[in-house]
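P2Y purinoceptor 8
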Amino acid sequence: MRGHSYANMTRNSSSIKLDNATLALFQDVNTSIAISVIYMLVTAINLIGNGLSMWLLVFRTSPKTPSIIFMINLTLTDLALGTALPFQISYQLQGYNWKLGPSMCSLLTLVFYTNMYCSILTMMAISIDRYLGIVRPMMFRETRGRKSIAVIGCLLMWGLVLAVLYPLMTTDLTFDVPELEITTCFDMLKANMLPSTSAWAAFLFSMVFFLFLVPFCVTTFCYVRVIRKLARDSKTAQKSRAIRLAFIVLLVFTVCFAPNNILLFAHSVLRLFYKKSLYMAYKLSLCFSCLNSCLDPFIYYFASKDFRQKVRAIMNLHSLSSADSMKLEHKESLYSAH
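Tokens:
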């Protein structure tokens, strides 16, 4: 599972005797319970928040601008993680004993990593959409063409992520630990999952560089340009909200994804070449990456006054006149990132 990857890289489950630190990790009940409780909270907030967001985006939001299409894609990946987290919780609470077989282990591991990296790429796509709409508006006029590009972009994101993560789909990620009479899932990786140390280095570099570092740099560039443009050209309440939202997105991007990917790369290099480990720090950083899945609805939707008014209207907490509704839809069509 994503929550416990790269603890050790071993040749096979029958000839390797685990070190005391690794055995202690699997027997650390307090840490396992603490992380499971966090995952329970994340699961509840994720499913409720993203379920509501998906309903609003699909059935209550029109027109379907590129930003809305990207948000639907982001919400879909978050819901996939929300449905996978209960299996991770059960696995941990049973003492890291996986009972659902190799195929299910590979599938859920893929769901975890796909969520992280599709979320990162989708956030990059939203930032590009905002950049083009605000900084380069003359390039951003044809709505129909933009919709097609957005759909193709989502498909390309999934294709890129699945291509990089292909080794996870073709390997038995379970590992028998006779000393504890348990079978782990993606806690212990076999060294022969990839043919050489160079292949491992390429795999890890592709994940961190192409699926995190490049999107992070693009997202930062786009939002910095958006903030500079709005700060110079307008000081209306709507533009101020957009600036604050850009800051929040960058902050969450940095807090949720940067520590995990940096520690993943550092830990893997230390493990592959120096037989050392940063695994506990890496494992704790995963809690922050999972938090993103339940924060997305608040960041992208509830931070927007227009979306908040729609939520209140649907829940009969606040009624919108037809004129207000038309005004909101007009705003959305002109300012797709809002």
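DSSP finds eleven helices and four strands in the chain.
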